[in-house]
Amino acid sequence: MDTRKFLFGLQLAFTLAVCAFLVVPVVMSMLAGLTANYLTGLSSGLTLRWVIEVWTGYRDTIFLSIGISVACLAITLLLGVPTAYLLARSRNRMARFIEELLVLPVAMPGLATALALIVTYGVYRGFRTSWTFILVGHVLFTLAFMVRSVLAVLSAIDLKTLEEGAASLGAGLRQRFFHIVLPNCRNGILAGSLMVVTLSMGEFNMTWLLHTPYTKTLPVGLADAYASLRLETGSAYTLIFFLMVIPLLLGLQALSRPRPSRFRGDDELNPEKLP
Amino acid sequence: MSPAPARPLAIRLQACAKTFDTGVRALEPVDLAIDAGETLVLLGPSGCGKTTTLRLIAGLERPDAGGKVFFDERDVTRESIEKRNVGMVFQSYALFPNMTVAENVSYGLRIRKVQAPELRARVTEMLSMMRIEALADRRIDQLSGGQRQRVALARALAVQPRALLLDEPLTSLDAQLRETLRVEINLLLRRLGITTIYVTHDQTEAMALGDRIIVMSHGRVAQAGTPREIYHQPASAFVADFIGTMNRLQGEVKGGRFLCAAGTLPWAGGADGVRELLFRPEDVRLADEGEDADLSGTIAAAFFVGDRTRLFVEVSGSQLVVDSPARCSLQIGQPVRLRVDSRGLLAL
């Protein structure tokens, strides 16, 4: 009995140690953003000075990042959901090939994709210097995540028979897509949206090459701040990033939770169990 | 939409064959006529083409070139399922998981833009007809298999379809529930008088429900007829074996008698020569004491099944299935004498 308690204690200690190892740097970084002087430590007092400094200096990057990730989400929804639907309907070799092709930008280093974009479209100055240039890179990178998560949900349900059922009741292609397909892949769309928004918000590799001094995103600004300003400023920047991303994550996580059941049991018509 | 059920529909398939993109021939050219108001059962083992035939009628598949589908006298071959106004029930039910029971049932009516008061009345009517009013607000994943089946039927019938197409609707249910629902569906179809095509691999279901049965095998019609015709006058060995249990006995016909090692049977049909005779288990019984017997053999196995005892009797090298009263006690290896009802004898 005592050995079991000891072993349990040991496991608990190990788990807590691992958690601490992962969480402490995050807390330290956030604290650093609120400390008057990081080298002196917390004794120098807490301040919002750095946060305000970041806000005044880098506000634009924050808004740009939000803008790009929202635009990226809109495009991946418009392109990705119908693509996933088409791929789910035709499970042949061509569909498989397209599915693999979509993952290519994820497998390739972001720098390589960025270089390819610059080499091909860099000559169009207006496009090169606009934020839409970054957006194109982000869409390339995130589209696979939307398609995959929607496709996973669509493959799990018997979409073909559901559509045939709707068709037998008179529903045309459009009606079937909006009444049957979309509502039933809701969870896949939410999961995909979560991935797309957070990936786009935090994307650095590709954006580092694609950005111009006038189109800095949040992560680019963060690198900039760490490289050229005080450590406290960089940390304050991280703090702002957390404050933006975490509510978003929690919100989407809550949305994608399955709805609670309102009824259970009292199966008066027959006693047979649910499959 | 009229409140009275639509006039029943006659359906005709003309030289309908189906070859899939993979090159597999699912259906050889089939001609089929289904009378208005009739319940037709398509029966056969898996891969016999029965579901393909149903899907051709539904409009979920197009026949190969040359094949035509007629609803009454109208050629609907090119019409998609959305336009055909047929009610369909799938083996997996295909209920929409994103909708409640009532929403599922009303879906076809909403597509047809039926006005709210009429829509509500019709949904209520359907739910009460299937005795699932209490489930109206439930989600599909909160229903049992039997309940799903009822919802699927209510949904298919809500739009007052001109024909009802059922694809193995009871297959995924357990035996007891299957029987209850079979009786219920039978009563429902008689009451509605709707043209119905019912696909199954279960001969009991086919017998109980069908006005007519089409037995299919390898993409062809093996036999078409009433349940009695199919059972008592099977057209081929395949049909005889597929429907019920059939005993087979090898022997020789000579001068109006059938001779085999275990005895003789009267046989008036056909010329002399080596023959195989067939008969059903219920057409053979144990001979009483002192009664003349047709065949003799020994008990190979006996299974008590409640209402009767099913005997396996070894008779001149082949095993016959004999149904005898439940209260008989027989030992394995015991010699028995059998009497065959000559009206039940068949030769194919």
In sequence order, what are the helices and strands of chain B, one letter per element?
EEEHEEHEHHHEHEHEEHHEEEEEEEEEE
CATH topology of chain A: MetI-like fold
Our measurement of the CA-to-CA distance between the termini of chain A, rounded to an integer number of angstroms, reads: 41 Å
Helical fraction of chain A: over 70%
Using CB atoms under 8 Å apart, which protein chain pair has the greatest interface?
A-B, 31 and 44 residues
CATH H level of the largest domain in chain B: which superfamily?
A: P-loop containing nucleotide triphosphate hydrolases
Structural class, from secondary structure content of chain A? mainly alpha
Helix content of chain B: 25-40%
| Biggest sheet details of chain A | none
Mean pLDDT of chain B: 87
Strand content of chain B: 25-35%
Total domain modules of chain B: 2
Strand order of the largest sheet of chain B: 6-7-8-3-9-10
Q: Per the principal axes of the C-alpha atoms, what is the gross shape of chain A?
A: globular
* Radius of gyration of chain A from CA coordinates: 24 Å
For the record, the count of structural domains of chain A works out to 1
> How many strands appear in the DSSP assignment of chain A?
0
Straight-line N-to-C gap of chain B: 52 Å
Structural account:
Chain A has 275 residues and is mainly α. Chain A has a single domain (26-255), classed as MetI-like fold (Orthogonal Bundle). Chain A is built from twelve helices and no strands. Chain A has helices spanning 2-32, 49-89, 93-107, 110-121, 125-128, 131-156, 159-168, 173-184, 186-202, 205-210, 218-228, 231-255. Chain B has 348 residues and is an alpha+beta fold. Chain B has two domains: 11-242, P-loop containing nucleotide triphosphate hydrolases (Rossmann fold), CATH 3.40.50.300; 247-347, Nucleic acid-binding proteins (OB fold (Dihydrolipoamide Acetyltransferase, E2P), Beta Barrel). Helix content of chain B is 26%, strand content 34%. In chain B, β17 and β18 form a beta hairpin. In chain B, α4 (116-129) crosses α5. The longest helix of chain B is centred in the middle third of the chain and has 18 residues, at 175-192. The N and C termini of chain B lie far apart (52 Å). The mean pLDDT of chain B is 87. Chains A and B meet through α7 and α8 of A and α2, β6, α3 and α5 of B.
